[in-house]
Write a structure and sequence with these properties.
Layout: E1 2-4, H1 17-28, E2 32-35, H2 65-75, E3 80-83, E4 86-87, H3 93-106, E5 111-112, E6 114-116, H4 121-127, H5 134-150, E7 153-157, E8 162-167, E9 179-180, H6 185-194, E10 197-198, E11 201-204, H7 210-226, E12 235-242, H8 248-262, E13 266-270, H9 278-294
Helix pairs in contact: 1-2, 1-9, 2-3, 3-5, 6-7, 7-8, 8-9
Protein name: Putative F420-dependent oxidoreductase
Keywords: Flavoprotein, FMN, Monooxygenase, Oxidoreductase
Organism: Amycolatopsis jiangsuensis
């Protein structure tokens, strides 16, 4: 079982907090440490965060996801280091490729990059990227990553940029298994045709039946097979979003419902809305792990 690193809210601002949490959570038995990605928390957003009239308070303090992953890599040895989800198309592609490669090397091959295209017009405006191109840019980025990770000489004509033939000697320990987010038709087709895995989301309290996830996964694997891929090789990294006020009992009860049904390869609980300090983050992590161990 994995957990979110304290990258949002007041816990994210504690000096040395991410390193302390990562180290102690792994010692307690956390199998994965995960980040999200939020560049801005607009006062009057063009599009509000789903389920909110505006933005959650916690997003007003946000750590850089790559800094958080690199920090965790330096103080852990076994935990998967994942993202669900980095808004990949808001970053310059060559810089993103180098960041992901460096984190994988620093962690000795433990990076699980979960990528998406985001939903915030404000963030796209802030980075100067046309939001309407985000799907096209993600396809291009996947092409670039494949080249960056497999060839010593890299050249790429991208969307709005060009990489001249260049030596790229730093390679990941193993090709990072890129997982993709999304529930729309085009996004799911991209998962089936191109991704190593899918990033579904389960909410506590439950907002949809578990069959919505299992049915989508079955469709994805059928589409992957039609695309000439091994459907059984399509991995699943499940994010469990716990709403404010969720108790440890509710978390473990919900996990006992969704995990056996979906059988994900990786599962992590997002504690963002339940804790306000690194100590609280650690305490809740330990409580959930203890309850899981006791069945």
């Amino acid at each position: 079982m994995g957990f979110s690193l304290p990258v949002f809210g007041t816990a994210a601002a504690e000096p040395g907090g991410i390193a302390r949490y990562a180290r102690e959570a792994e010692r307690a038995g956390a199998a994965g440490l995960w980040v999200g990605d939020r560049l801005l928390s607009p006062v009057a957003p063009v599009v509000s965060y789903p389920g909110y009239d505006g933005m959650p308070e916690e997003f007003g303090t946000a750590q850089d996801p790559f800094v958080a992953l690199a920090t965790a890599a330096a103080v852990t040895e076994t935990a998967i280091l994942g993202s669900s989800t980095i808004n990949a198309t808001q970053y310059q592609p060559a810089n993103l490729a180098r960041l992901l490669t460096g984190i994988d090397v620093a962690s000795n091959g433990r990076l699980l990059p979960g990528l998406g295209i985001g939903w915030s017009p404000d963030e796209y405006s802030a980075v100067g990227v046309p939001m309407a191109q985000r799907g096209k840019r993600l396809d291009d980025l996947l092409d670039l990553l494949e080249t960056w990770w497999s060839r010593d000489l890299v050249a790429h004509q991208g969307v709005g940029y060009e990489i001249p033939e260049s030596r790229v000697g730093l390679k990941p320990v193993r090709t990072p298994p890129v997982h993709l987010a999304g529930f729309g038709e085009r996004a799911l087709r991209r998962v089936a045709e191109r991704a190593a895995g899918w990033l579904p989301v389960w909410a506590i309290p439950e907002q949809a039946p578990v069959e919505a996830l299992t049915g989508t996964l079955a469709t994805l694997r059928a589409d992957a097979e039609r695309a000439g891929r091994d459907p059984g090789a399509l991995s699943v990294a499940l994010r469990v979003n716990a709403a404010p006020g969720t108790t440890p009992e509710q978390i473990t009860e919900s996990l006992a419902k969704v995990v056996p049904a979906l059988e994900p390869d990786h599962t992590f609980v997002d504690l963002t809305y339940l804790t306000r300090s690194v100590d609280e983050h650690l305490d809740l992590t330990g409580t959930v792990l203890d309850r899981i161990a006791k069945g």
